[in-house]
Design a protein that fits this description.
The chain has helices spanning 8-13, 15-23, 95-102, 130-140, 156-166, 171-184, 200-212, 230-246, 258-261; strands at 53-64, 67-79, 84-88, 110-115, 123-124, 141-144, 218-222, 250-254, 266-271, 274-279. With 286 residues, the chain is an alpha/beta fold. It has a six-stranded mixed β-sheet. It has a four-stranded antiparallel β-sheet with strand order 2-1-4-5, covered by helices on one side.
Length: 286
């Protein structure tokens, strides 16, 4: 087991800033201590028959100099626990905006986003206050973006530990959990390296470990392989598939890569403000 680096106190002080850049959380750690992460290798508790996510009548519009721009309206969606859903569509269709709303990073103009909970009534994500949304994101959501957004001044281990430090976990415990997650993504020997010393694929694997270190139920990935070459992209996606299965995740991925999208449970196309199912069964990539 790798020992916690000497920079752990510095990482702890930087946790609020670092975790906010990494996953959108901007609140103090006292807001984020409601649950301990699920131990490595364990799956979240089942939710029964309720879908993990239920979206009803969602609308998102913006005011522009030319008038109101509506990305989508009366959009409905249900995602069952354990599904891997791929969302495809042209650039500008609103895919990333939809992902931000599902993950409590943005608010809809109208509509509701219900997130099932194992310990309380479903949460209407769209109605959360900023402080509630911050706690919700840290507890329930893991994010992976096209760019890794790792903090260049910190090591891979410290970057993975940031969300745990932000929720108030002791640095020694946070570093131990982060080291376990680096092992999960096959980077246990790269913990002391800074992002600039890692390859693009390694950076994205560190970002994936950081997204999952708090044991979220939902993984949101926005073009997670978009900056990678074809071979590396395939390897990263295989890792996402493995972690999705082994940790009982529910995953929603935005991608332009139809070959990878076909390996999901469902493919949905967002076009003209509407979601359309393209397939209901996973197909092997060819």
């Amino acid at each position: 087991m790798q020992s916690p680096p000497a920079a752990a106190p510095q990482a702890s002080r930087a946790a609020r800033e670092g975790e906010s850049r990494a996953s959108g959380t901007q609140e103090s750690s006292s807001q984020l201590t409601q649950e301990k992460p699920v131990p490595i290798g364990e799956k979240p508790a089942p939710l029964g028959d309720a879908p993990l996510i239920r979206v009803e009548g969602l609308r998102k519009s913006y005011r522009t100099a030319r008038g109101e721009l509506t990305l989508f309206e009366n959009l409905d969606l249900e995602v069952e626990a354990g599904e891997m859903v791929a969302i495809v569509g042209q650039s500008g269709a609103g895919k990333s905006t939809l992902l931000h709303i599902l993950g409590a990073l943005d608010a809809p103009t109208a509509g509701t986003v219900y997130f099932a909970s194992t310990y309380a009534a479903p949460v209407n994500v769209a109605s959360l206050s900023p402080r509630e949304a911050a706690a919700f994101r840290n507890r329930e959501i893991g994010y992976v973006w096209q760019f890794h957004y790792l903090l260049p001044e910190f090591t891979a281990l410290e970057n993975v530990a940031m969300p745990l430090l932000a929720r108030g976990m002791r640095p020694s415990e946070a570093m131990k959990t982060a080291a376990n997650w680096l092992k999960e993504v096959d980077l246990e020997d790269r913990g002391t390296h800074r992002p600039g010393e890692l390859s693009g694929g390694e950076q994205q694997r560190v970002a994936l470990a950081r997204a999952l270190v708090c044991s979220p139920r939902l993984l949101l990935a926005d073009e997670p392989t978009g900056d990678l070459d074809g071979i590396t992209a395939g390897r990263v996606f295989e890792l996402i598939e493995r972690l999705h299965a082994s940790h009982g995740l529910t995953s929603i991925l935005v991608t332009h890569n139809m070959e990878l999208a076909q390996r999901s449970t469902r493919i949905l196309r967002l076009a003209n403000g509407r979601l359309t199912a393209l397939t209901d069964a996973a197909q092997p990539a060819t």
